[in-house]
Amino acid sequence: ETVMTQSPGSLSVSPGERATLSCRATQSLKANLAWYQQKPGQAPRLLIFGASTRATGIPARFSGSGSGTDFTLTISSLQSEDCAVYFCQQYNHWPPTFGQGTKVEIK
Amino acid sequence: EVLLLESGGGLAQPGGSLRLSCAVSGFTFDNYVIAWVRQAPGEGLEWVSSISGSGVGTYYADSLQGRFTISRDNSNNAVYLQMNRLRADDAGVYYCAKGVEMGTVFNAFDSWGLGTMVTVSS
Question: pLDDT for B7-20, tens place per residue?
Fold first, then answer.
């Protein structure tokens, strides 16, 4: 199966600063990569699919980029409500697989 | 508004069974794949099973070793996960989720239920 590796494991960013999260796959995904945000006690929320398409209602400060094996989620100006764990998921190969998550905290 | 609501979780003994249900509304049900994704306490997300919009295609994680069965009732807008021979490592929150794109099982998931907790213990 395709293994997804996220880095860093955790990230501490000052309010208003940029947060950059990475996700790497063990084989090419083309652009079939999604990003999710999960807050404690809540279900995951889709942020990005197709590597760079924002899901409905997602603020413009969230952007995705990359193709092939290397992908990035950027939060351009971190807000307090962005504190969460972020997961990537590939859906180019069967079975669908998730990264282990990156925890984003406010500095 | 798209809604998914899981039910049926609870405490089961090792080797026991549970049947999870996912009731959905707010979209054309038989156009979209529905998946079950689980999360062990303090852990990440693990895809468990998917069923195509028609119900003809069913897919399972290898780790399940044939113990789970997914099904759907398109007349009642519901998806089910029958879980047999439960093990301690099956414990966690089980979410049902809807595919973002019509007509394919290769999908991201744009709507999720709140989840239902499964505990496996004697």
Answer: 999 999 999 999 99
A77 three-state secondary structure:
coil
Chain B residue numbers with beta carbons less than 8 Å from the beta carbon of A38 are: 45
- Prior bond of B14 cis (ω within 30°): no
Contact: B108, A46; criterion CB under 8 Å:
yes
Indicate the average pLDDT of chain B.
Answer: 95
Please indicate if any CB of chain A lies within 8 Å of the CB of B61.
Answer: yes
Contact flag A32-B44 (C-beta cutoff 8 Å): no
Strands (E), B15-87: 18-25, 34-39, 46-51, 58-60, 68-73, 78-83
End-to-end Cα distance, chain B: 40
Q: What sign has the CA pseudo-torsion A3, A70, A49, A44?
A: positive
